[in-house]
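dumping this here before i forget
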Amino acid sequence: MTSTSLKDKRSGPGPDLSPPPADAARGRARRRALNWLTAVAFQVPALVLFGVLVLLPVLFALYAAFFRWGGFGMPSDFIGFENFTRLLDDPVFLGDLWRCLLLVVLSLALQLPFALAMAVALNQRMRGRAVYRMLFFAPYVLSEAITGVLFSMIFAPGDGLADEILDGVGLSGLGGEWFADPDMVMATLFLVMTWKYFGFHMMLYLAGLQAIPKELHEAALIDGAGPWQRFRNVTLPLLAPTLRISVFLSVIGAIQLFDLVWVVTAGGPDHHSETMAVTMFQYGFKRYQVGYASAISVAMFLICLVFALAYQRFVLRRDLEGATTTMRGGSK
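structure:
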C-alpha cells in the first residue's frame, strides 16, 4: 500500500457526531416550548392586572347600566334600556355632547395650530430655545388639580390677577365673572386647557420636525422655494403622521375631560361647563344614581370606541400600512 493511499485513509471523513434528526427536532420543539412559556410568564401578570382593573369594571358598568341601582349591594332592579333612553331626553347630557363638540372644534382650530406655530418657531436656531421649550412644556407636567386651583385664583372676580392686568391696561370692562358667567365660562375654561395642554402637542410636533431630513429643505431652498412653500410642500406632508396622532389624542382628551373642569367649576354655573365625565360623576357619587351614571360611562366608551375605530380606518390607515411595509422590508 502506497503512502498516498494511507494519507487518504487518515484524512478521510471522520465519524458523524451530529444528533439524529429526531433528536434535533425534539430539541427545537423544546426550545420553542420554553420560549412560549417564558413569554406567557411575562404576560400573565399584565393580563391579570388589565382584566381586574380595566376589563371587569367595563363589563360591570355595562351590566349596571341596565338596572336602577344606588351603588349599594348588587344591582337587582332591572329596567332594561331605560337608562339609555333617558340619555336621549336629558338636556344636561345633550348639552355635554354639544360642549364636547365645541371643545373639539376649538382645539383643532386654535390650540393645535398654536402648538404647531410654537414648535416651528422653537425648531429654528435661536438663543435660549431649550429654556423656552422647558417653559412651554412645564404646564403639562403640573397636575390638573394644581392648574385648576392656580387659575381659580388668577380669574377670581375683582381681585384676581386677570382683572388686575386688565385694569392696568385700561380694559377693565373685559373682566368680570370669568367662571361664573354662563357666556364666559367655556371660553375661559378653554383658555386654561390651552395653557395646560398645548406644550404636550408642541413637543410632539418638535419631535416630528426634527425627524425631517434637513437635506429636503436645502434642496427646496436651492430650487427657489420660499419659507411658506417649504413649509407647505415639505414640512406639512412629512409631519402629517404626527399631526394625525396629535388630533386623535386631542379629541379623545376632550371627550374624557374631567379633573380640570371639576376642580375649576365643578360643572357650573348651572351645568354650563359640564362634560360627560363630570355629569357621570355627579349622578354616580353625588346623587347615587349609579345605574344612570353607568349608562353615561357606556355612552362615553362607545363614542371613544367608534371615533377610534373610524379614525384608524380612514385616517391612520396609511401610517399603519407604511409601518408594516417598513417592518417587512427590514426583516428581509
